[in-house]
Amino acid sequence: MAKNMANQKIINKAKAIRLLLLDVDGVLTDGCLYYGNNGEELKAFNIQDGLGIKLLQRNGIQVGIITGRTSTLLTRRATELGIELVVQGREDKLIALQETLKETQEQYNYKMEEIAFLGDDLPDVAVIRQVGLGVAVANACEFVVKNSHWQTSTKGGCGAVRELAEMILQAQDKLDSTLEDYL
Questions:
Q1: Is residue 179 part of a domain?
Q2: DSSP secondary structure string, 120-170?
Q3: Is the pTM of the predicted complex or chain greater than 0.85?
Q4: Mean of pLDDT values over 6-19
């Protein structure tokens, strides 16, 4: 498993990516659960991750979510980002992925080697091992890291999605032109 800088093998895997799937708690968030005095749940999402998702979408790479928990806050954030493929409340993420691929086969026909998954903890390992590019965030548990192809240098909830998005776009020779759009 390569850490941080992507070697040629990882770059080659990233070139094929058409779909990035994300876990939520510990990936899109810092992994902490915040509860208010009135029972409300709070989550903090990193704005840089959101822009990374938008950059991928602008370049024809779909982004989706598979998470074990269910949250109306996540539904709201996914809607804001234009993420249509959202699977919540599924502990067995590999089965959820397989079912999703079957349901979307006519529309997208994704192959496993065209999928990247970013995770942080044990429920993510089965998917990480099956997809073309399995990635762990910087603060993932060691077992996840050992079973991943690559690891971000950024912690979950702190821009790890953005780091992976830019790595994928760089591998596909799309990053420079995408960034130039902001000049």
A1: no
A2: -SGGGHHHHHHSSEEEE-TT--HHHHHT-SEE-SS-TTTTHHHHHHHHHHH
A3: yes
A4: 94
